[in-house]
Sequence to fold (307 residues):
Amino acid sequence: MLALLALAGMTLDALLGETRRWHPLVGFGKWANGIERRLNCGTTRFWRGVLAWVLAVLPFSLLALWLTGIGNTGLMLHALLLYFCVGLRSLREHTMPIAQALACGDLTQARRLTAYIVSRDTQAAQESDLSKAAAESLLENGNDAVFGTLFWFVIAGGPGALLFRLANTLDAMWGYRTPRFCAFGCFAARFDDVLNWIPARLTALSYLLLGATAADKRRAWHCWRTQAPAWPSPNAGPVMASGAGALGLMLGGAAIYDGELEQRPPLGAGRAAAAGDIVRAWRLVAATAVLWVAVLISCGALAWFFR
Fold:
């Protein structure tokens, strides 16, 4: 049953994509911003951050847990929660226009579109910079927006997927080492690290296994083993290093944040990214989602057969 519900949720995402008028995660972001404005003050900011996380995440997660226990309606809600939380089609819709703009030589449009999905400055970025940024975002969000959500759906159904996605959203909103968020967002960042630890490594393994050739697989493993420890995030490092290695791309390196040039550790090996590599990165992420849905269905079929 769980495999069929996962298939239903992923199919809804493929067919419908994000809701156009009001997305639940957008509403959650406004709710979280309101909590942060009221609690992110004073001297005990770490504990205020813990309280803010609890107030932001637990009411929705507990409500989902209660609703999914209500008969057949609850079963349908599992699939709907996965649909609302997973973001596979959204990744495509946000990154393919960047590849198309670059293919047409429209740097202005590509810069504007890339600025929507990354926090680095894109005003003076060239094709290779924009391609690198989009490919990195795709590879990292292949875990955060797709496989991590699917993993926790398998563990705890729709409520598990929701808890993971809300926690991941708070990390993206509060998990910065800035004067405002260093203490307040510490719990959100660390909790997301814990939730992501296993999914990130399974995503990295998937990228490795889906490398087009044996050489791609070996390179992905080498990059994962040697480069991931140097990356600031314990989970983004394995995911992006493995993905970049599987694609034969050199990612990471220099990027501009808030007007300052930041030299980040290298990711992958090979040539610099180009517009076509955004499409290749998307296909790798999509193939990973298909792989794990197929694994779920196969396991479900075997369990039904032997039962």
Observations:
- The first helix runs from residue 2 to 16.
